[in-house]
TrEMBL record, chain A:
One of its GO terms (molecular function) is ATP binding. Transmembrane segments: none annotated. The keyword Transport applies. Residues 2-221 form the ABC transporter domain. It holds the Pfam family ABC_tran. The keyword Disulfide bond does not apply. This is Tungstate transport system ATP-binding protein. Signal peptide: none annotated. Keywords: ATP-binding, Nucleotide-binding, Transport. InterPro entries: AAA+_ATPase, ABC_transporter-like_ATP-bd, ABC_transporter-like_CS, ABC_Transporter_VariousFunc, P-loop_NTPase.
Automatic annotation (TrEMBL), chain B:
The keyword Repressor does not apply. It holds the Pfam family BPD_transp_1. One of its GO terms (cellular component) is plasma membrane. This is Tungstate transport system permease protein. Keywords: Membrane, Transmembrane, Transmembrane helix, Transport. The chain crosses the membrane at residues 12-30, 36-56, 63-86, 98-119, 154-181, 201-222. Belongs to the binding-protein-dependent transport system permease family. GO terms for biological process: transmembrane transport. It is a multi-pass membrane protein. SUPFAM superfamilies: MetI-like (SSF161098). It comes from Chromohalobacter marismortui. Residues 26-222 form the ABC transmembrane type-1 domain.
Length: 221, 235
């Protein structure tokens, strides 16, 4: 569960981009975060991931039975950049890094990495340089790398921006699978897509506030 | 002209016949310079990381200071170390003057500014997302640091090659604190200076050829590294 109170953030001495007096989210749904360019969607996602320190207010994640935590929550609440950073190694190597950091045994790591690449449709590219992949494949690799950790929450910053139709469909399928596997997702997106239509909640940053609506069969309530 | 050709021929003969005296000098040079470069690399990496990634008051002054030290003449480093290591100096008790260790200290000091400046520039150009991604995926502080260095590996190798090229070709501090002692602290550059003064051009020329060959190899390697680094950045 996410609890946000009295949150405000801005850059340098500029006035705050927005203020969120209170937000409570169960952290199970698929959320579409909307807002105009410059409204602070990326900033909000980065704050929730703990990549920025808020100017004021608090953010608390309660994940499972653990005590509430301030972000960052490595491996559990993950933020994916609009253009994900891929390490300068092979496709499989990107996943092996994660295995190494979490101390998985070699055989276990090999098995899990191979299964994840297969699941995400990247098995044929396993030994290819990650940075030679197309935009859609890069996003799928970033999602596979995150999925390897079975995160509780994924914060996706415009995951389908500048992708072609087929790549958008592939990425949306993968994100839906992740959600069905029990990962809560907040995604920012300008354009409506198959994925945004499936969202259960709708957060909108406008007039320096966050408006929250729930969807029931496509209708905001 | 004929004399010059004879000298060149003699120099080449010394090289290919593996003249023991010549190769001993080459061995001392490489031993001293490689030790200095590998000793200077870890602290230089840490300082460069600090300058590239941590905002602290006086950072820009520290960067300017490092850039200034890059231009310090080698004889000045030799002079300072000579004063410190001579019997009457504060470190005289260590009895390091005219030893290979003293030469390593001198080359360590000469290598550090070059390493720090080049590593700083390389590490600064590494995408901030690399650190953020690694930390989010559960990498510890040291693992993330190692990842950054690995991502910048071509720049790191280029910095090492450039610094190595500078210190193996320096003569000022080597002659002042090494003393150019035969079989002990005589290096390629100090031997060239000595042999030239004695009128023995063949050995000096042979050693000069080694330095030229080394410069060529280092430049080719640097070119390859720059190319690979560029490919990595643009990918």
């Amino acid at each position: 569960m996410l609890e946000v109170s009295q949150l405000a953030h801005g850059f340098d001495r500029e006035p705050a981009l927005w203020e969120i007096s209170h937000l409570q989210w169960q952290g199970r749904s698929l959320v579409h975060l909307r807002g105009d360019n410059g409204s602070g969607k990326t900033t909000l996602l980065r704050l929730l991931a703990g990549l920025e320190v808020p100017r004021q207010g608090t953010i608390r994640w309660t994940l499972g039975n653990a005590a509430p935590l301030s972000p960052p929550c490595p491996g559990r609440v993950l933020y994916l950049h609009q253009q994900p950073y891929l390490f300068d190694t092979s496709v499989a190597g990107n996943l092996r890094y994660v295995a190494r950091w979490h101390g998985w045994r070699r055989e276990e790591a090999r098995h899990r990495v191979a299964a994840m690449l297969e699941h995400c449709g990247l098995a044929a590219h396993a030994e290819q340089r990650a940075r030679s992949l197309s935009g859609g494949e890069r996003m799928r690799l970033a999602l596979a790398r995150a999925w390897l950790l079975s995160p509780r929450v994924l914060l996706l910053d415009e995951p389908t921006a500048s992708l072609d139709r087929q790549a958008i469909a592939d990425v949306c399928t993968l994100i839906s699978s992740l959600h069905e596997a029990g990962c809560a997702i907040v995604l920012s997106a300008h354009q409506p897509s198959v994925l945004t239509e499936r969202c259960d909640e709708y957060w909108c940053l406008e007039q320096r506030c966050l408006q929250v609506s729930a969807f029931k069969q496509g209708v905001a309530v | 002209m004929r004399e010059l050709m004879n000298t060149v021929g003699e120099a080449l003969y010394l090289l290919v016949s593996f003249d023991p005296a010549l190769w001993e000098i080459i061995g001392v040079s490489f031993r001293v310079s490689l030790t200095a470069i590998f000793a200077a690399l870890p602290p230089s990496l840490l300082i460069a990381l600090l300058l590239a990634r941590v905002a602290f008051p006086g950072r820009w002054f520290a960067i300017s200071l490092v850039n200034t030290f890059m231009a310090v003449p080698t004889v000045v480093v030799g002079l300072v170390l000579f004063m410190l290591l001579s019997r009457s100096g504060p470190l005289g008790e260590w009895q390091l003057l005219f030893t290979q260790r003293a030469m390593i200290m001198g080359q360590f000091l000469l290598a550090m500014p070059v390493l720090i400046a080049m590593l700083h520039s390389t590490l600064q150009s590494i995408d901030q997302r690399a650190w953020e991604t690694a930390r989010q995926l559960g990498a510890g502080w040291w693992s993330s640091l190692w990842l950054l260095i690995r991502e910048a590996r071509f720049g790191v190798i280029a910095a090492v090659l450039a610094a190595f090229g500078r210190i193996i070709a320096e003569v000022g501090s080597a002659v002042m604190i090494g003393g150019n002692i035969e079989h002990f602290t005589r290096t390629i550059t100090t031997a060239i200076a000595l042999e030239t003064l004695k009128g023995k051009f063949a050995q000096g020329l042979a050693l000069g050829l080694v330095l030229l060959l080394l410069a060529l190899v280092l430049n080719v390697l640097l070119g390859v590294m720059r190319g690979r680094g560029h490919q990595t950045v643009s990918a």
